[in-house]
Design brief:
By secondary structure, the chain is an alpha/beta fold. The chain folds into 3 domains: 320 residues, ABC transporter type 1, transmembrane domain (ABC transporter transmembrane region fold), CATH 1.20.1560.10; 193 residues, Rossmann fold; 56 residues, no CATH class. A 6-stranded mixed sheet has the order 6-7-8-3-9-10, sandwiched between helices. Strands 2-1-4-5 form a 4-stranded antiparallel sheet, covered by helices on one side. The chain starts with a helix and ends with a helix. The relative contact order is 0.08. Bound molecules: adenosine-5'-triphosphate.
């Protein structure tokens, strides 16, 4: 209970900082509803008193008219706050909370997000808490409204008979116990469901994401996927079956006790008093009405208490997520221009596989403006080395220096801004081509000229300039009927254009020719070496013919640099590089 309170108060404080006005609205709504409840109970009593004691018609009419005017005014204000202000304020809060969560997610290392448990937490936090801020505030509002209604009706009943207060209090305690049990079960259920739901949603996604869509048809994977979908749905049903009956039983018990205790017992006591002539008909009716209002409020409060407990468990996850220690952040900005990169005995293993050193003591000095190629077999650790240089992962031992300064001292944003990367599998957004390059909206003609320039350099301008909407064409058909689909090679060229636009001092190309035909590949390397003229260039490629031009080539094997030198030196050494080169040359010759 203490923990629930602590979590809920922590969240309330956080939301209060996001938008104080929402709390003003809440207070106004609670007050209006309490006044309305009090008015309705008093009106019944006054009306019945008038009938019984034969007060004048005008007295009653005046009272009812005044009550109706006040109630109508209150209802109008309530409506405006409830249906307009609240929605807007909830959205402000949601936006701010979402922004804080995204900032935190961004600040956490990729390494931490690589774990399934962390993914589950991340999903709960992003999906649930985002929408939960609204429902949490609603629960708080309902809870406080319920408590105020109970207080108001209690004060009214107290003026007539104290016994009903005791009955209501007993009912509230039982309601709180039931609510607590329901909340515990609900949260347990949710936690067990999350993994199965994630799997089900993943399979659903496979059915509609275009890249998968084509592959599943081609490989006839539909029945296999449907089987997996059925499995996850069965798992979900299994979890529901194991928790739902207990939840339903506690719920039934709660409803039953509210009606028998709070309403039934009070009615019995009142009936006895009427028979004994110790209570008036008007007191009976108004107390019964007050008790019924109180019953409703007790039910409401116990429901909301259980909701608050559920909220608290999610809030705990959010707090845990937001409190996760962020990577120690550097503050130094990387200077503009080309950079030298030094790796000193760099070791690294992914935490998912501690036993395997993916980078096993690599030392390498890349001079400012040098063009270097990393080659080697699949899984040798080339991409991982790049990720370390980009600061996406932290080396487990050794050091990485950029311009002689440890990588950790640099501000992450500035570091990534000075290294432009074309990834092995480029990812684009369903926005326009220009926006995909600028990563913001086009603002003026200078933007357009710069976009055109990098599209020309990457070799995609020819295609883009012939599109009806040119660089304003949207990628994909998800949001635009006329959206365009890029081929694999075109998609890679777009990624290259984006990297060139960044104008960073270091350009990293991780197999940029993956989807290009041989002619396009040769052209692309020409362009890249030209574009990289004023940049430090790191190139990963399996096609050794293309990387011959590099100033230096490192042959990586099992996380170590096995051979290093120019193409000519390595060929002369006649080692593994030379063997691989001859093998590829032979294959090309055969073709
Ligand atoms: N996020 C990750 N978590 C755990 N292991 C990983 C992760 N990413 C890569 N690995 C493993 O690290 C090893 C090196 O992968 P890396 O992608 O660096 O190789 P590579 O030399 O670039 O291979 P390729 O030429 O096939 O692209 C592989 O065995 C891979 O399975």
């Amino acid at each position: 209970m203490k923990k629930t309170m602590k979590m809920n108060l922590w969240f309330l404080k956080k939301l209060y900082q996001y938008d104080k006005k929402r709390f003003g609205s809440m207070a106004a709504l609670i007050l209006i509803r309490a006044i309305k409840t009090l008015l309705s109970v008093i009106t019944i009593k006054v009306a019945l008193d008038c009938i019984v004691t034969y007060h004048s018609f005008w007295y009653l009419a005046g009272f009812v008219a005044a009550e109706r005017i006040v109630s109508s005014l209150l209802a109008l204000i309530e409506c405006k706050i409830d249906w307009l202000d609240k929605e807007i304020q909830n959205n402000t809060i949601k936006k701010q909370l979402g922004a804080e969560m995204f900032r935190q997610a961004e600040a956490l290392s990729l390494e931490r997000l690589d774990h399934t448990e962390m993914y589950d937490q991340y999903k709960i936090v992003l999906e649930e808490i985002g929408s939960r801020s609204g429902s949490f505030l609603q629960s708080t509002e309902n809870l406080l409204t319920g408590i105020c209604n109970i207080a108001v009706t209690m004060i009214f009943v107290l003026t007539i008979d104290i016994r009903f207060i005791l009955i209501a209090a007993l009912s509230a305690v039982i309601g709180a116990v039931a609510g607590n049990k329901i909340a515990q079960k609900e949260v347990q259920k949710r936690e067990e469901l999350i993994r199965h739901e994630r799997k089900r949603d993943y399979i659903k996604r496979i059915f509609y994401v275009p890249e998968y869509n084509e592959m599943t048809r081609l490989t006839n994977a539909n029945s296999f996927l449907l089987q997996k979908y059925d499995e996850s749905v069965s798992d979900i049903k299994q979890v529901l079956r194991s928790h739902q009956p207990t939840i339903a039983h506690w719920n039934d018990l709660n409803i039953l006790q509210i009606f028998t205790l709070n309403f039934g017992l009070s009615a019995l006591l009142m009936a006895r008093d009427i028979a004994a002539g110790t209570v008036s008909a008007s007191a009976f009716t108004s107390v019964m009405f007050a008790c019924s209002t109180m019953s409703g409020s007790v039910g409401w409060v116990s429901n909301e208490l259980s909701e608050m407990k559920k909220h608290a468990l999610y809030i705990e996850k959010l707090q845990d997520f937001l409190n996760k220690t962020q990577e120690a952040k550097g503050t130094v900005s990387v200077a503009p221009g080309m950079h030298e990169i030094t790796l000193q005995d760099v070791h690294f293993h992914y935490s998912a596989n501690v036993a395997r050193e993916v980078t096993d003591g690599i030392s390498l000095h890349i001079k400012s403006g040098e063009k270097i190629a990393l080659v080697g077999e699949n899984g040798a650790g080339k991409t991982t080395l790049i990720k370390l240089i980009e600061g996406l992962y932290r080396q487990t031992a050794g050091s990485i220096l950029i311009d002689k300064m440890p990588i950790e001292t640099f501000d992450g944003k500035s570091l990534r801004g000075s290294i432009a990367t074309v990834m092995q599998k480029p990812v684009h957004y369903s926005f326009t081509i220009a926006e995909n390059i600028l990563l913001r909206e086009v603002q003026n003609d200078t933007d357009r000229r710069r976009v055109q320039k990098v599209l020309e350099e990457s070799g995609l301008w020819e295609r883009v300039s012939h599109l009806p909407k040119g660089m304003d064409s949207v990628l994909g058909k998800e949001f635009d009927e006329e959206g365009i689909e890029l081929s694999g090679g075109e998609s890679q060229k777009l990624a290259i254009a984006r990297a060139l636009y960044e104008d960073a001092g270091v350009l990293i190309l991780d197999e940029p020719a993956n989807s290009l035909d041989p002619i396009a590949e040769a052209e692309m390397y020409e362009r890249m070496f030209a574009a990289g003229k004023d940049r430090t260039l790191i190139l990963i490629s399996h096609r050794l013919y293309s990387t011959r031009k590099a100033d230096r080539i490192c042959y990586i094997e099992n996380g170590k640099i096995a051979e290093e030198g120019t193409h000519e030196e390595l060929m002369k050494a006649n080692g593994k590089y030379a063997a691989m080169y001859h093998l590829q040359a032979g294959l090309y010759a055969q073709e």
